[in-house]
Amino acid sequence: MIVHAASSLDQATGKLVKFTQGIERTGVKPPLSYDPWLTFFGFSIVFRRELLSLANIEGRFRDFIVPKEKIAHDRWIVFLGQVVGETAEFDKPLVTYRQHSTNLFGDGRRSKKTRGYDPIKEFDDYISATADMVEVIRNLPTETEVTFPLFDRGKAIDFFQRALHQLEQRKRVYISRNRRRGLLAVVGNIRSGVYRSVHRDDIRWRSIARDLKYCAIRS
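Request: output the structure for the sequence above.
Response:
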């Protein structure tokens, strides 16, 4: 798979801003180098056609961002691509993305939680999708290792199972009966390494802050 940066054009201001998509430098990354739920925008992806025959796209799982829909085509391709092979990144903006009020998804600068947001439901949506990711990997055809020699089924399953475990453990914070139990769950998660990302093993400080904030506003 090949991915590249873009330039984001804001319709309101007319300003052009580099939209890196997290790409820091040009290079090649091995399989399983990304956050399990990361995606690149469809306009910035080039991929091997063989990815399309790995699994039936019509049978793909629910989207963890838009749970009423099946997983978006770009998220589906990025998921499969990072599981079975390398990803080449280009940090040079090769397209211009126009940001406006009717974009279904934006470049990340406008994302806000809507009224009535339910964090427990969000965890459930991510848990469901991640569990399905594990099953997709289990059911990839046996010839996948031949077509994509870097594919390691066992390693990939373990990667997404650890991500699934993290989601399940973090959900415990949100379903705890009171603030004290929630804080104890956060502490337990810190001690057990739940807040370490599965792709880089660094600490997810934002996740810790989010979970602590939720505990703080509870009765």
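The CA atoms of residues 21 and 40 lie 7 Å apart.
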